[in-house]
Specification:
Distance between the termini of chain B: 7 Å
Shape of chain A: elongated
CATH topology of chain A: Mth169, Chain: A
CATH superfamily of chain A: Phosphoribosylformylglycinamidine synthase subunit PurS
CATH topology of chain B: Rossmann fold
CATH class of chain B: Alpha Beta
Number of domains of chain A: 1
CATH superfamily of chain B: Class I glutamine amidotransferase (GATase) domain
Order of helices and strands of chain A: EHEHE
CATH class of chain A: Alpha Beta
Order of helices and strands of chain B: EHEEHEHEEEEHEEEH
Number of strands of chain A: 3
Oligomer: heterodimer
Mean pLDDT of chain A: 95
Shape of chain B: globular
Number of helices of chain A: 2
Low-confidence stretches of chain A: none
């Protein structure tokens, strides 16, 4: 079993890295880009015996307490069998 | 009075802090390895600058889980003094001992230069020997010093006089041009509600000798020493 955790800056939190990437991409000639925000992605291998509900609870707690800073970031969790 | 300087893997201003306490404050000081948990013999601890845990995940995020940090929390709750400088400020925010967060500088790059800050309050253990409105010239050296917090937190910081220093120009003008990293309201240092935990992005410990370009940092340590002397 595998968990995928996405951590993204909250809307409104300045993302200078995203802005710099957007600027570079536009210099290359890509058009129609309204915004680029950079986030983090974690893959967490899990013991299948955990079960999906317990895995989701455990990984969500991990995301809340360690992987993200709740002041600046939101997260989402996906569990794959 | 006795000081402790906490050392994480990746701390690199620990010796500067130690030097200032032993040489300029003239008081006993120990290094405290991050796996140690006994802080009972100390009156104040300094969480120094550096790159604890290589800034992995987020600056200060992993240091917060070091064994010593539980002790630092209890130490702070007991009313004793905690000074976090640069990475130390980031760690205190990650640990929830100070509100808000320090994110990537507005201009993205690492900034290493002398800047000016204005003392916004003399009503703390760390600034009582300084005058409100006075201007200090101190070095900064960080990539994540852009202080942010929500509106409620910001209102509380203002209402409770917890904004300690703000970035300014050499004459004390708090302007956007004098804001090196995009911090909200030019905030360079704050304290907690109880006023015994202080976080500072600038490095007063690197500005205690004229040879190093400024000795304006001494006032912070002189204030803390005066506070501890009065308590003892």
């Amino acid at each position: 079993m595998k968990a995928k955790v996405y951590v993204n800056l909250k809307p409104g939190v300045l993302d200078p890295q995203g802005k710099a990437i957007q600027h570079s991409v536009e210099l290359l000639g890509f058009n129609g880009i309204s915004d680029i925000r950079q986030g983090k992605y974690f893959e967490i291998g899990l013991d299948s015996a955990l079960g999906e509900a317990a895995a989701r609870e455990s990984v969500s707690r991990m995301a809340r307490e360690v992987l993200s800073n709740p002041i600046t970031e939101d997260f989402s969790v996906e569990i794959e069998a | 009075m006795k000081f402790g300087v906490i050392v994480f893997p990746g701390s690199n201003c620990d010796h500067d802090a130690y030097h200032v306490i032993s040489k300029h404050v003239g008081q006993p000081v120990d290094f405290i390895w991050h796996r140690d948990t006994n802080l009972s013999s100390y009156d104040a601890v300094i969480i120094p600058g550096g790159f604890s845990y290589g800034d992995y995940l987020r600056a200060g995020a992993l240091a917060r889980f070091s064994p010593v940090m539980n002790s630092v929390k209890k130490f702070a709750q007991s009313g004793r003094f905690v000074l976090g400088i640069c990475n130390g400020f980031q760690i205190l925010c990650e640990a929830g001992l100070l509100p808000g967060a320090l994110i990537r500088n507005r201009e993205l790059h690492f900034i290493c230069e002398h800047i000016f800050v204005r003392v916004e309050t003399a009503d703390t253990a760390f600034t009582n020997e300084l005058e409100r409105g006075s201007v200090l010239r101190l070095p900064i050296a960080h990539a994540e010093g852009n202080y942010i917090c929500d509106d409620d937190t910001f209102a509380a910081l203002k209402r409770e006089d917890r904004i300690i220093v703000r970035y300014c120009d050499k004459d004390g003008g708090v302007t956007d041009a004098a804001n090196p990293n995009g911090s909200r309201d030019n905030i360079a240092g704050i304290c907690n509600h109880e006023r015994n935990v202080l976080g500072l992005m600038p490095h007063p410990e690197r500005a205690c000798e004229d040879l190093l370009g400024s000795s304006d940092g001494r006032g912070i340590f002189r204030s803390l020493a005066a506070t501890l002397a009065a308590v003892a």
